Amino acid sequence: MIEIIQEYWRNYLYSDGYRFTGLVITLWLLVVSIGLGFCLSIPLAVARVSKKKWLSRLVWLYTYIFRGTPLYVQLLLCYTGLYSLEVVRDHALTNAFFRDGMHCTLLAFTLNTCAYTTEIFAGAIKATPYGEIEAARAYGMSPFTLYRRVILPSALRRALPYYSNEVILMLHATTVAFTATVPDILKIARDVNSATYQSFNAFGLAALLYLAISFTLVWLFRRAERHWLAYLRPQGK
Q1: Separation in Å, CA 6 to CA 10, 24, 98, 203
Q2: Inter-CA distances, 57 with 38, 112, 116, 137, Å
Q3: Span 186-197, mean pLDDT?
């Protein structure tokens, strides 16, 4: 493995010349997809628990489809399926977007993690103690203010342990990005394996990198949980 590290560590860790590869691309895929998915999931979660049946069922249909089909299939549909449609190729904007593997990968990842995150947050919103809502209404809060100041902050804190699992799973899911020729860690490991035929070393180094990222994320979320969920811990006398 030492020879592999000495010869290919640049490709694994940050860049190949002026082109980012390996670790940087994997982290970029994770951060962008998780960030976009998080921002989109909050209004979708509110819509998911809405009393308007048509709105709630529309969001349910979206989450049902993306949680019920493999991410790999979703990526293939975005990368090769949509581009095979004439209506996509005929417009300059959509043609340029779906020709790029990175764009298609980010789109598939964002829609996938958004579906799971929406259901996580919707469940946390439904579990909000009714006493908190009654107290906020007693202060005369509007529905928007009620969500902004009471329901969402409370729900997001309580959803943190479940959301941390989704982030870790999304990190593992980035391994399918090589399908769209995106040079993530696994793509570099496959290239190293093809060049050296040292499969254990090539994929072993990739596994160590994924393990290091996972432990870092777990540590960050544990610190966040201790900070934002401190009020749930039993208090000593």
Answers
A1: 9, 18, 36, 15
A2: 20, 18, 15, 27
A3: 85
